[in-house]
Hints:
single chain; alpha+beta; Acetylcholine Binding Protein, Chain: A; Methane Monooxygenase Hydroxylase, Chain G, domain 1; 2 domains; 7-stranded mixed sheet; 5-stranded antiparallel sheet; 6 helices; elongated; disordered N terminus
Amino acid sequence: MTRPVASTRLLPALLAWAALLFVHPAFARERCEGPPECCPVEHVEHLPTRVTVSVGVVFVGLYNIDDRAQAWEADYYLYEAWAPTPGFTPQTELINETSSHDDHFDETVFEAGRCVRTRRLHSVLHSPFDLRLFPFDRQRLTLRLADAERSSGEVAFAATPFALSLGDDARGEALSWVVSPRPRYTVATRPFAHHPSAPGYDVATVTIDVARRPGFYLTRFFLPLLLILAVSFTVFWIHPEDLGAQAGIGVTCLLAIIAFQSGQSNTLPAVEYLTIADRIYATAYTLVALAVVESVYTNILARRGHHETATRIDRAARLAFPIGAIVFSAIGVLLAFWQRR
Length: 341
């Protein structure tokens, strides 16, 4: 009787493959190359005492602050400093990193009685934006760090950073934004699982405050929008019986506003709230539509022989519509600031 040779050869291969799946997380640990005091070959599962790690970030580049993706890119040095502990190397990860480039530099040294690891990184980081005040908004760019393996009972981040700075060159690379020269650093303990018994992990957050430069939007969108509104109000100076000219101006202005808003909305994410820009565009839509309605109404009055009444309405509209544009725009801006609080 023939023995099932293929089966006996296949079984060890399957067992080896399954073993690799189970032991893979042990090899997922970040590579550390340096003195044995800092980069032990074997890591212990539980630390006998709590280890304090001092982290620091020095930014050398700040790029591509993207409103639509709510993300930004950073080129920076990441520092980790800790007292040598048998079987331990920090496994610091970036919680809000969406993608990264290869490390440019990675060095671990033992100096002054502690281990110091320095890495040069380039990351794309996610930061939620609040765009209610767009284009006069301020945002917070955050970089969040946590240990990938150990809870705050075993690894804690120091209350003060090892290093924290933002170079002048990095600030100048974000052309559309005014970047604060001083990043902020905070540490908090947070659970990573929504369960009362879940362990807490120390999370270090580096925050860079940025303010948008509104000049681009004021000159490319709002100034043309103001001119379009001014053109639409010329219907009040056209004779009430010339409805064709009035309607032509009104519809053309309405289409122009739609085109301007469409060009701007392509750069912003789809959010459930109104921005300042949305409120101003809504005011412009409403006023132009009302101007067309007023033209139709005065034309009806003129055709029925009420020329004086139609003329009085046109004269009142010449003053009421510009005042309405200012008042309703101001109300929209104030509402946006109130909701932002």
